[in-house]
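Dear colleagues,

As part of the handover before I leave the project, I'm documenting each prediction I ran so the next person doesn't have to rerun anything. This entry is a single chain, and its sequence is reproduced below.
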Amino acid sequence: MAGFRILIIEDDPEHAELIRMGFRRHDEFFLDFAASGEEGLRMIAATAYDLISVDLVLPGIGGLDVLVRIRKIDQDIPVVMVSGHGTTEMAVVAFENRATKYVVKSLESFKSLPYVFENLILEARFKSNERSMREKIERSERIHRNIVENALAGIYILQDGGFRLVNPKLGEIFGCSAQSLIGLPFWQLVRPDDMHCVTRLLRDMSSDIPVYESKVQRKDGTCRWIEFRTVPIEYEGKRAMLGNLVDITERKEREIEITQANRELAAIDGIMQTCLSSSDDADKMLTEALDHLIAGIDDAQIGGIFLKEASGLVLRALHGPVEDLIDFINGMDSSILLVAPRAHNHDAGRNPEKDKNRKWISAPLAYACEAKGAVVVACGEANGAQSLSFLEKATSRISYLLEVCDQRTMILPTEGPLAQIRTGYTSS
């Protein structure tokens, strides 16, 4: 055990000697003596002590005044007031001035001082360590709280399926206050039709902490893409999940745009390869071109290529259920298909209920300043505008294909099953 350094402020030489004798068998104590309050204060300013013993009655500066000055220097050091008079009033005054202990002088009390001093020092060290640890914990909590509250990522703790702790950034990402998320299940924020988007990112498969991405719906109905990772922890004595979440909407939208652009480029390239092929089968080439076109449209479901013949528009290539295409085409004024690219209303066909979750789009096929036919496609409702833009690009390539075929005199009336489907359009 490390030694204890003690300052004894005692003006009576006999009492000082008795105190010294009481510590002769206790080598762990190192005693310094001062005969007055002034001398004791000078020694305190120059040396670090573990405990100070102050006689209540001293020449010059009295013991209580010395105690008050010590407390201005050090709030925590044990200070023992020693008095030859054990009155209750004096003890009360000493404790009011923050004395640690009050001891009445006697032969027995001098003998017990080593044990009293040791206990007081150890207790003071324990309290000091406890306070220091508590301050470190509080400082650490403040630092972590500042980090969490000012983080650029959303940080949360999930327990029993619901949010137990969230930071302001998480609320900002979801378009609401952080407090309103407390208790809310995490999966309630993921749109049901986007559950398939909750995927572990392959680029982080080697990481100990898996990374996922998903689309979430905000309180205002708008959607955001997020990337998140979780790790199991213990929170308030129970198993929980600590997660952090980043809004990757801008990055994800760029990725989706690039993916769609690559799909469209591949589709256009496929159509052009078909144009350059040496096939003599016109319907086969149109079917291949339609398949490439469908592949270039996200969520395309049905497609057909119609060519203008003397009897009207004739279906020459098909992708998807022919019944649905018939339901849309039959009974409508098909001349509108030959005018310009357009998106059709849900009630354009004969089965509005079936078409409520998809968008019909069409674009004319033309070359030599004349409409030769049309392409009709059913795609996802959300992608109608983008799909129509791509359809317009693709039909210009298919129009070139028709021109190539016409030059080869390959566009001839067919007696196949597709030719039996006629539209309401009649050639003038």
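Residues 4-144 form a domain with the Rossmann fold fold (CATH 3.40.50.2300). The first strand starts at residue 4 and ends at 9.

All the best with the project,
I.
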